[in-house]
């Protein structure tokens, strides 16, 4: 018999999560996760925590939708729940302008493909009922683009990513909602990167019937806890008529465990799946923090610190092409063009977790999720410019640092 290998205990060091996500978890969330007692998923405090979480989540998302809760897992779990109502043969228009909207498009093509279409290309089906509207990398999906596509194709469903972190672009949520209303289309929004970062209320967008986000970006919770979702009565009524081909991510069945039964709030949930007491405690605390800081306050802070970071990297010779407030997507100075991956790998080797874009053209992405203070932004700029200088950029870091300091001091004086 071969000798069994027992590997040494796994040690994972602290790093700066300065990419598009996951973000940096608040210490209060980590403390709640670690201090939660061992409890089963039907224990009274676990169920109470889930009921309280759904109520806090409604406030954060800005909605009266009863079917608002968290799907166990990452943002992909929430998105799978969102797209579960799309059935084979359904007519869909999906807008793609980056890596993650592209994956949403693939998900919808898989959902809407007939058995024959799926069998013809199981991992990349091309169903006749799905139209993919591609917008070039670095550009946003506009209301005019959405209007034209819905007018032409008259689908049942339309889907768009609100903030596309693949290219750092914000897409036109108002234009999307208005177009869906105008053509009686059920809108689906991937809000994975915008919820908790931008100040918006989902009930202000009546053309959108389904929303999905993630736990580890704007909500600043741990991955593999709960992905926020919210569904209108119209979405749920459609689902009751058609059903969907899932059990685990079925929006109606999933809602029951959160105390949402027969379209009403119940005192407590009933069994659907095993939930973790640790995850519930962490998610509950992350929502409390968000409400204490307020979505508006957090959005204002993101806008200010992103502007400081944008100014610093621009002064260092980079060209920013994004318009998000939690992520800067940039082209390196001409002297470093073509060395983006080398730079990213050098930074990551030193515990500074920035990212390249995952599709052409290759750019660098620097995120500030839950890094909303002068010390964190200064550290990011210092590390990034230092890495460029190690590759021969020859940037005056002292001048960049003084510029950054002046920007923060001006903000303090204005207060």
From TrEMBL:
<dbReference type="GO" id="GO:0008483">
    <property type="term" value="F:transaminase activity"/>
</dbReference>
<keyword id="KW-0808">Transferase</keyword>
<dbReference type="InterPro" id="IPR015424">
    <property type="entry name" value="PyrdxlP-dep_Trfase"/>
</dbReference>
<dbReference type="InterPro" id="IPR024169">
    <property type="entry name" value="SP_NH2Trfase/AEP_transaminase"/>
</dbReference>
<keyword id="KW-0663">Pyridoxal phosphate</keyword>
<protein>
    <submittedName>
        <fullName>Aminotransferase</fullName>
    </submittedName>
</protein>
<keyword id="KW-0032">Aminotransferase</keyword>
<dbReference type="InterPro" id="IPR015422">
    <property type="entry name" value="PyrdxlP-dep_Trfase_small"/>
</dbReference>
<dbReference type="InterPro" id="IPR015421">
    <property type="entry name" value="PyrdxlP-dep_Trfase_major"/>
</dbReference>
């Amino acid at each position: 018999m071969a000798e069994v290998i027992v590997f040494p205990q796994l040690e994972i060091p602290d790093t700066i999560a300065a990419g598009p996500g996951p973000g940096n978890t608040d210490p209060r969330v980590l403390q709640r996760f670690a201090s939660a007692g061992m409890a089963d998923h039907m224990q009274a405090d676990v169920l109470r925590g889930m009921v309280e979480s759904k109520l806090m989540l409604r406030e954060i998302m800005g909605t009266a939708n009863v079917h608002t809760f968290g799907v166990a897992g990452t943002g992909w779990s929430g998105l799978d729940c969102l797209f579960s109502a799309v059935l084979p043969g359904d007519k869909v228009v999906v807008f793609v302008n980056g890596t993650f909207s592209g994956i949403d498009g693939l998900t919808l093509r898989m959902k809407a493909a007939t058995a024959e279409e799926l069998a013809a290309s199981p991992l990349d089906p091309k169903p006749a009922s799905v139209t993919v509207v591609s917008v070039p990398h670095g550009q946003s999906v506009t209301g005019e683009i959405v209007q034209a596509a819905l007018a032409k194709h008259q689908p049942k469903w339309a889907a768009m990513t609100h903030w596309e972190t693949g290219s750092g672009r914000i897409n036109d949520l108002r234009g999307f909602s208005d177009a869906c209303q105008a053509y009686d289309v059920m809108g689906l929004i991937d809000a994975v990167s915008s919820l908790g970062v931008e100040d918006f209320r989902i009930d202000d967008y009546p053309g959108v019937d389904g929303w999905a986000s993630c736990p580890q970006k704007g909500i600043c919770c741990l991955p593999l806890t709960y992905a926020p979702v919210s569904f209108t009565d119209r979405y749920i009524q459609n689902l009751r008529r058609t059903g969907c081909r899932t059990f685990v991510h079925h929006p109606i069945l999933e809602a029951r465990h959160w105390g949402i039964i027969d379209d009403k709030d119940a005192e407590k949930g009933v069994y659907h799946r095993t939930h973790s007491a640790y995850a519930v405690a962490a998610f509950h605390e992350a929502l409390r923090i968000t409400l204490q800081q307020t979505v508006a306050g957090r959005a204002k802070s993101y806008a200010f610190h992103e502007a400081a970071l944008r100014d610093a990297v621009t002064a260092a010779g980079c060209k920013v092409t994004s318009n998000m407030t939690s992520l800067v997507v940039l082209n390196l100075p001409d002297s470093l063009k073509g060395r983006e991956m080398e730079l990213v790998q050098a930074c990551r080797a030193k515990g500074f977790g920035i990212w390249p874009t995952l599709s052409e053209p290759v750019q660098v992405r620097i995120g500030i999720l839950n890094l909303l203070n002068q010390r964190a932004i200064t550290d990011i700029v210092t590390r990034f410019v230092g890495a460029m200088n190690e590759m021969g950029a020859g940037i005056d870091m002292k001048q960049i640092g003084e510029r950054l300091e002046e920007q923060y001091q001006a903000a303090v004086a204005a207060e």
